[in-house]
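Interim report to the steering committee. The following record documents the input for Sporulation protein (84 residues).
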Amino acid sequence: MDNNFFKNIEKKTGVNMKDVFELANSLQNANFKDEKTVRNVIRRVSQIAHKPVNKEMEDKIVKSIVNDGKQLDFNTISKMLNKK
């Protein structure tokens, strides 16, 4: 993709695309049945998005993914963060 495309996304969102790609690469072989892994991913997404997640919300997201088997993707996490 065009580098300007990513620069425009960074300007509009304040999210560093390099961080997003690094996170995406780290998710490829992640075990989403492991609570510690899921918590680390949630914290990393929160940090990248500049959206703090309190303990209660983190617990809800973890339960949703680990226990209920929901997909872990940016859209799912984003929806959960926006419900706060």
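The mean pLDDT is 81. The committee is asked to note this result when reviewing the revised timeline.
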